[in-house]
Amino acid sequence: MPRLAELSGHNVLIVGGGDSAFDWALALEPLAKSITLVHRREKFRAHAATVARVQDLAVRIVVNAEITKIHGDERVTHADFTIKGGAGETIPVDTVVAALGFTADLGPLAEWGLDLDKRHIKVDSTMLTNRPRVFAAGDIAEYPGKVRLIATGFGEAATAVNNAAVTINPEAHLFPGTHPTRADRHRRFTFAL
C-alpha cells in the first residue's frame, strides 16, 4: 500500500462507494492533482457525513458507472469507464485505488443451523448465536442497531472472545485483568442474562 505522500500530484482513480473509498478521497484530496471516485450505484455504503464532506471537496464523483479498462504498460496512464445508459469516457490516471467491498458468503456455516438474517448471523449482546458455544463477530454478525465499522468489529471480537472464555472456563474473568468477588460474578451473570 502506498504512502499518501507518494501520491502527491497524481491523478487518482478511486473505485468503490464504501467507507474506505471515501476515506481515501478525504486523505488524498489535499495532495492529489485530481481525484475521480467511480461507483457502480447511486447509493453509497459510506457514512452520509463522510460522503457530504467529500462532495464539498474538489473530488469528481461518478455514479452508475463501471471501469471498463485501465491502460498502461509499466505504469497506469489512463482509464476508461462507462456510465450506465451513456457514453464512455477516458481520464488520465497515475494511481488506481480499488476500494471494493465484498459480498459475504457463509459457505458451510449456512448449514450449521444458525439463525440468519440474509447473509449475516444473528447474535445477542455477548455475540452468542442461537447455538450454544458458537459466537460471531465482525461483518458476519447481525443485531438490531448494528453500525458496520471496523472499530465496531474490533469491539465485537473482544466481546465475543471474553464471553467465549467465560463459557469455556467459568473461572475466567469476563473483563481481563480483574478479579471479581463472588458477588460480582453473580451480578455479571445476572446482567448477562
Automatic annotation (TrEMBL):
Keywords: Flavoprotein, Oxidoreductase. InterPro entries: FAD/NAD-bd_sf, FAD/NAD-binding_dom, Ferredoxin-NADP_redctase_2. Residues 9-153 form the FAD/NAD(P)-binding domain. The keyword Hydrolase does not apply. GO terms for molecular function: thioredoxin-disulfide reductase (NADPH) activity. It catalyses: [thioredoxin]-dithiol + NADP(+) = [thioredoxin]-disulfide + NADPH + H(+). The keyword Flavoprotein applies. Gene3D superfamilies: FAD/NAD(P)-binding domain. This is FAD/NAD(P)-binding domain-containing protein. It comes from Phytohabitans suffuscus. The lineage of its organism: Bacteria, Bacillati, Actinomycetota, Actinomycetes, Micromonosporales.
